[in-house]
User: Fold this.
Amino acid sequence: MTSNQNGRFLRTLAGDISQPPPVWLMRQAGRYLPEYRALRAEKGSFLALCYDPEAACEITLQPVRRFGMDAAILFSDILIVPHAMGQDLTFTEGEGPRLTPILETTDLDTLTAQPQHLDSIYATVRKTRAALAPDKALIGFAGSPWTVATYMVAGMGSKDQAAARLMAYRDASRFQALINAIVDTTVTYLSGQITAGADAVQLFDSWSGSLAPAEFERWVIAPTASIVQRLMALHPQTPIIGFPKGAGEKLVAYAAETGIDALGLDEAIDLQWATRTLPPTLPLQGNLDPMALLAGGTALRQAIARITHAFEGRPHIFNLGHGIDRHTPIAHVEELLAQIRGTAR
Amino acid sequence: MTSNQNGRFLRTLAGDISQPPPVWLMRQAGRYLPEYRALRAEKGSFLALCYDPEAACEITLQPVRRFGMDAAILFSDILIVPHAMGQDLTFTEGEGPRLTPILETTDLDTLTAQPQHLDSIYATVRKTRAALAPDKALIGFAGSPWTVATYMVAGMGSKDQAAARLMAYRDASRFQALINAIVDTTVTYLSGQITAGADAVQLFDSWSGSLAPAEFERWVIAPTASIVQRLMALHPQTPIIGFPKGAGEKLVAYAAETGIDALGLDEAIDLQWATRTLPPTLPLQGNLDPMALLAGGTALRQAIARITHAFEGRPHIFNLGHGIDRHTPIAHVEELLAQIRGTAR
Assistant:
């Protein structure tokens, strides 16, 4: 039983058609907000913020407080899972994350689980759910196993995710063991977030677009299906949103085979194709181009109108197709919300 | 009239079904070849090689000589077009290309065309066509206007092509003028390559995947259709291959609306979807994962078998889905060719 089953976001995930649609924005808790930048300057590193329940709760609430978003998304990072699995993790300003790479010779069994990292996140979830209004949903999340594995293998973000793709071809059974380990920790982690109060969870597969189709089946669809099956057994009432960025035409198989309750669409997806091809009762989330939101003006108004028009008559959660750009003016977010909610001038 | 109308590559582009299919590899003339590395070490910079017809001809011929590829692709770069339009261009080892960025305040009319750069390339084409066996095709190429514009605006390769996407939203008429200028130079350039002896041309749209659907229509499909229409009026016998990387489900519109004669598929495209959805007479080119070729072994054999099987019964040119990785062992390319040509052990 969720704490806000009457909220518009969860009703849409359950299949209702809301007009106007519920809205939240990927990375809505982040650097484009002055109140985030102020807290970050005061508290220090990104990872320290993720593990500080008070700060992370405050950051999670900031965009809901400022804009009245229909859902809050936990302020955290997809690399919490490898960190909890025992991999070293640091974030350096301007360089992004660094981990000790998993090499073809690394023994996964030598990693020592650090479950206290997950406990910090659960504390954030509890605090945030308690502070949120009942009609606002709290979204927990994790990276999908493929995307998390690309960072674990390369030790950082990487062009074309070449190292992980190569390991998957060269030693599929070894790569399968890595994926299985990530699946296990991810199920524990998302289940813990739900127990702590998350009303829905989203799986971010930011790099699913770099995989050949047979690899996509094996490393995206199969592990996602496994996570969904295990989570649904534990928490049958909690909806799971899948977001395989760059999956293009493979979204059809992803929607049919993973068991996810709703599907996030990136900004490149053709909406006519999506609404014609994907199951009509499947709630879809997306997919404004973050560059249109950054640009503002006529281009933004037209892009919003195309999206709201395309999704008319089906369950739709308005969102970006990718995280909000850090340079996005606050006024553009306000204009977006005014237009969607019908209060635009 | 082409010099090798009986070659397997051109017959396939004309709609014939060849068994085994013709083969070439994107970036087959390049750094994975020791004979290329030797010439590069002797002659100096990448751009100097592009503008040296004798060296560029030799590099273009190297993979045909070593592997008997069915087609040679001109050794050159997509940034020759902005260079010929008057933009500064340098390549720094390990850093990639640098151009003086086109800003929102740059007056395009201040660029001074440098047509001598195109003339060097035509000289390479003439030399290469004269040196190639009649049954081997010579492929000319250019970048597609959108992809070329992303480099012209950012002044370099860029994450998510954000600068060009933003300019296109903020000032669409200005961006349209830039695209139109690139279209004009590209038509001149490809027409010159064909006159000099290119048997077919390919348009590389490496970054088409980053565009929202309405932007894809405007900045990928429309300029490509314009180039195809103008080239076909000038050279009705010369086939044009379009390669919009990352286009996913939007390949259907691209194939239907641009007028291209054949379609390149990147490695992420689902072959069952492609063969079921794209016109059955449209020749398709692709789409082995370069990481499978780098990995070799069982994974490579299985990936090749899936592709040859999926394209049975329709015109197909075997290729990678993206450029060959520089670390690819020569032996893996030999195994690929042996398997496709049915001489694998």
